[in-house]
Amino acid sequence: MKHKFFFLTFIFNLAILQFLPFRQAGFNQLILAQNMKKAFINGKIYTVNEKQPYAEMVMTEGNKITYAGKTNLNIIDAQTSVYDLEGKLMLPGFNDSHLHFTSGGQYLLGINLRPALSKEDFVFILKNYVKGKEDRWITVGRWDHELWLDKTLPTKELIDSVTPNTPVLLSRIDGHVGIANSLALRLAGITKDTPSPDGGLIEKDPSTGEPTGILKDNAMDLVFKIIPPPSIEENIEAALRSLEEAKKFGITSVQDMTQSGELEAYNKILEDGKLTCRIYSIWPIDRYEDLVFSGVIAG
């Protein structure tokens, strides 16, 4: 395991930091990275070339591989940084072809209710998580009541006592069901008289007609639409967390389904010299004019 971590992290450092539009600091760093020369020696290097699947040495200049083959120290000059792999395996960087990069970071930073194996566990994890976060929405969670001995769905009463002043909407593991506390329901204007929206269900107590807190599919949007969007600082924090996770698994490039406000976060991270993964940013086609007027161009 130690060796695996080494080579995945090592190859990750080959990623060229690139994202457009460039700010000057980030652009300067990109130019510097493209001029860097590196040699990796004494390794078992997988080349993805059927005719030569492994090499002992690889050289790079910027984002291009200039040599892969037997160890040849004669082609290393004084401007080349040399790394001894000590016989360890080296792989090309991995690519994730479709993900929500910043949202993934928000999930990793948020509450994790998947370990909860009972309603008591559910409440205990939530109670400890909300401490010091009373002024912000608590979302996601990914709970799974099918793992509980009591497989009935949770209710707002279950969580109200530990979240009296914190708005909560916690999604089930499949994303099709959420549990909202009384404060979140009140902020969203959901009452016993609120009809379920098309494609959704506001679950109500058969005895009182009051919402139980369970919202299914499109009914969750009634709450989602009043949750303030993440600030630039929150998006940066989440993106940095995702970069950390990508580095851990050797992911050096991603195709990101970019949401509003996330492009600005990536630019700021690039400007600060912390963008350690290629990001291909994908926006909805109906926002193409926003891209045109923002000055974003093809790399």
What does this entry look like structurally?
With 299 residues, this protein is α/β, with parallel strands linked by helices. The protein is built from 10 helices and 15 strands. It has a 5-stranded mixed β-sheet with strand order 9-10-11-13-12. Strand 14, helix 9 and strand 15 form a beta-alpha-beta unit. Helix 3 (101-109) packs across helix 8 and helix 8 crosses helix 9 (262-271). The radius of gyration is 24 Å and the shape is elongated. Residues 1-22 have low confidence and may be disordered.
Key descriptive features of the protein:
299 residues, alpha/beta, five-stranded mixed β-sheet, four-stranded mixed β-sheet, 10 helices, 15 strands, 24% strand, disordered N terminus
Tally of contiguous helical segments: 10
How is the largest sheet built, in terms of strand order?
9-10-11-13-12
Count the strands? 15
Span of the ends, CA to CA? 37 Å
Structural class: alpha/beta
Q: In percent, how much strand structure appears in the residues? A: 15-25%
Q: What is the N-to-C succession of helices and strands?
A: HHEEEEEEEEHHEHEEHEEHHEHEH
Shape: elongated
Low-confidence stretches: 1-22
Radius of gyration: 24 Å
Kindly state the percentage of residues in helix: 25-40%
Quaternary structure state of the chains depicted = single chain
Question: What does the average pLDDT come to?
Answer: 87
Largest sheet: 5 strands, mixed
Indicate the topology.
Elements: H1 2-12, H2 24-35, E1 37-41, E2 44-46, E3 54-55, E4 57-61, E5 64-69, E6 80-84, E7 89-90, E8 94-99, H3 101-109, H4 119-130, E9 138-143, H5 156-160, E10 168-172, E11 177-180, H6 182-188, E12 200-204, E13 211-217, H7 221-224, H8 232-248, E14 251-257, H9 262-271, E15 278-282, H10 288-294
Parallel strand pairs: 1-6, 2-7, 8-14, 9-10, 14-15
Antiparallel strand pairs: 1-4, 2-3, 4-5, 10-11, 11-13, 12-13
